[in-house]
Amino acid sequence: MTDQLDELKSRILARTERIPAHIAIIMDGNGRWAAMRHKPRTYGHEQGVEAVKKVVRASGELGIKYLTLYTFSVENWKRPKAEVDALMALLAKTTLDNLDELIEKDVKLITTGRISGLSPTRRAALAEAERRTRDNKGLVLNLALNYGGRTEILDAVRSIATSVKAGVIDVAEIDEQLFSEFLYTANIPDPDLLIRTSGENRISNFLLWQTSYTELYIIDTLWPDFGRKELFEAVLAYQSRERRFGKVTEEIEDEPQSA
Ligand code: IPE
Ligand code: IPE
Ligand code: MG
Description:
Blueprint: H1 2-13, E1 22-26, H2 30-36, H3 41-62, E2 66-73, H4 81-97, H5 99-104, E3 108-112, H6 120-133, E4 140-147, H7 149-165, H8 176-181, E5 193-196, E6 215-218, H9 228-239, H10 249-252
Parallel strand pairs: 1-2, 1-5, 2-4, 3-4, 5-6
Helix pairs in contact: 1-9, 2-3, 3-4, 4-6
């Protein structure tokens, strides 16, 4: 098993120019995983954390630069209060419990979303992790928290409108580049690969602007069952894709695989 995985890894690393710089994941299926075992949904979320750890380590092994994990959406507040509370508590605890390993592995933790909407305790835990990993140079682990794609776009529109009104930006200057700089993900390249687990064929309000040319990879595996092997398989599948960005095959040959 390990040998097979190492062989997968070697195949990926043999094509460094085709290793995705940014992988985004919709980690879905924790509740169903738990239900299949007649356990509460929160047990599924706890096991989901184990999958997160495996994927962070495996991403580091491949030299992935950015890993964005959809951790809590703006819509997830509509879940039963007990589940929301458990998810939030798990988030703060996991962040602090694993901080030493993040530091040791040179991982830099950042967040994306309306962080101001989280409770002061949770914000404090995240702020501490961000502060202590600020200068790390390895994988950037981006937690999408209280995140909504439409909310993000509206927040950007509001900021741009305010800047136009204040005379700081001219309407003619508003282009894709400028707009991207007003998103929560300013300074982060668009995802090359978006993975969704649990077989749902939808975006669920995730990175609506940023995924315009992202390769999609949807698998039936439920998130707690996702690990090193599944990540390697997703990256291998990505490496076999042809990204055309609207061009024809002849035009893209010999070009690096990014926009
Ligand atoms: C994903 O698993 C975790 C979060 C959305 C926080 P779910 O909790 O959505 O699991 P399912 O989709 O109900 O199985
Ligand atoms: C998307 O999963 C949000 C996260 C993974 C945090 P959901 O389970 O909330 O999405 P839907 O409701 O199936 O679209
Ligand atoms: Mg779900």
